[in-house]
Amino acid sequence: MAKDRVARYGISRIDDDIHRTHAWRVSLRRRGKAHVKNFPDKKHGGIREALKAAGAYRDQLLKKHPPTTRKEFSDARRRNNRSGITGVYRYAKKYRLKDGREKETWYWEAHWPTTTGQSESVNFSVNRYGEDLARRLAIRARERGLKQVEGIFWASERAENLGASEQAESTSRSDKLPHDPPLTSEGRAA
Asked: What is d(CA 154, CA 68) in angstroms, rounded to the nearest whole number?
């Protein structure tokens, strides 16, 4: 079952009787651009042939547009970035004094991913290092941290796991496809 999910990475089924649409759809997003193409059963001679064509197209897309690396994902500048450096930001820790007054201490913090789902950060006090040095230290810490980052972005792992043997197996099967409705002699869902 997990093998089928990997073999069908980026491919989904459309069966819409109202609009008479029966097709496999390849849908991948790479570096902000959507790549979408439908493979109708009728045009390709049946449900299995349409899936084979969709698989071949998807494989071409993956070769031409490989998955995002973890470094690329980590370096992508977000809309809410105000420091100008990805993964480095300035913030204040607020605390209350015994006499009731509120005080804040400013920091520059660097943040980077380590393993899947994990991250590391380090902060530098503006009071201790000064504004400019604290910022430069945070930038340097982020750069050092990113040198350790390897692999691909976690959301792209299924594409990377799509091996040639699984591709061949998924596109050359002639038996009933899992999770698909029974087929008529024309290759349509019954």
From this structure: 9
Residue among 76, 85, 156 nearest 116 (CA): 156
pLDDT tens digits for range 72-119: 766 766 777 777 788 898 999 999 999 999 999 999 999 888 866 678
pLDDT of residue 66: 81
**What pLDDT, on a 0 to 100 scale, did the predictor assign at position 156?**
53
Residues 121 and 110 sit within 8 Å (Cβ to Cβ): yes
Where are the alpha helices (H) located in the chain, listed in sequence order? Answer: 2-7, 41-44, 47-64, 70-75, 126-129, 131-147, 157-160, 164-172
> What would the two tokens of residue 95 be?
């605390």
**Whole-number Å distance between alpha carbons of 70 and 116:** 9
Alpha-carbon distances, residue 107 vs 122, 138, 164, 171 (angstroms): 10, 9, 49, 54
Tokens of 83: 């420091």
Would you kindly state where each structural domain of the chain is located, as residue ranges?
2-68+154-172, 70-147
Taking the alpha carbons at both ends of the chain, their separation in whole angstroms is: 23
Confidence tier at 1 by pLDDT (50, 70, 90): very low
